[in-house]
Amino acid sequence: MTTRAGFVALIGEPNAGKSTLLNRMVGAKVSIVTHKVQTTRARIRGVAIEGDSQIVFVDTPGIFRPRRRLDRAMVTAAWGGAADADVVVLMIEAHRGVTEGAAAIIESLAERGEGQRIALAINKIDRVQADVLLGLTKKLNDLFPFEETFLISAEKGHGTDTLKQWLAQQVPQGPWLYPEDQIADLPMRMIAAEITREKLTLRLHQELPYQMTVETEKWEDRKDGSVRIDQLIYVMRDGHKGIVLGNKGETIKALGKAAREELTEFLDRKVHLFLQVKVRPNWLEESERYSEMGLDFKDGNA
Question: Which of 49, 52, 240, 256 is 20 to 30 A from 65, alpha carbon to alpha carbon?
Answer without folding.
Answer: 240
